[in-house]
Design a protein that fits this description.
This protein is mainly α. The chain has a domain at 23-67. 60% of the residues lie in helices and 0% in strands. It is rod-shaped. The N and C termini lie far apart (128 Å). The relative contact order is 0.04.
């Protein structure tokens, strides 16, 4: 004999709608750590990321300006001879 629908116990409204998905905490932590590492890497790429050509050009420019500065120094006759 089948029970009538009025005789079947129904699931309470609360348990059917409040339940959420089960989350694996290890996976959640790993995912969060991966996101933070990726954002830090992005910041470092922006801050430190220059191509080799850019680095070489900057080095050549620094050497050129340093040499130009040294060539413009004035020599004074204040030096004493080393004939002691």
């Amino acid at each position: 004999m089948k029970p009538r629908t009025s005789q079947i116990r129904r699931i309470p409204y609360i348990s059917a709608h409040i339940m959420s998905n089960v989350v694996n905490l290890n996976k959640f932590r790993k995912k969060q750590a991966r996101k933070s590492r990726q954002s830090e890497a992005e910041r470092n790429r922006v801050e430190h990321g220059r191509t080799k050509a850019e680095k070489d050009a900057a080095k050549a420019e620094n050497e050129r300006t340093s040499q130009a500065h040294d060539n413009k120094k004035l020599e004074t006759g204040d030096t004493e001879p080393d004939d002691k």
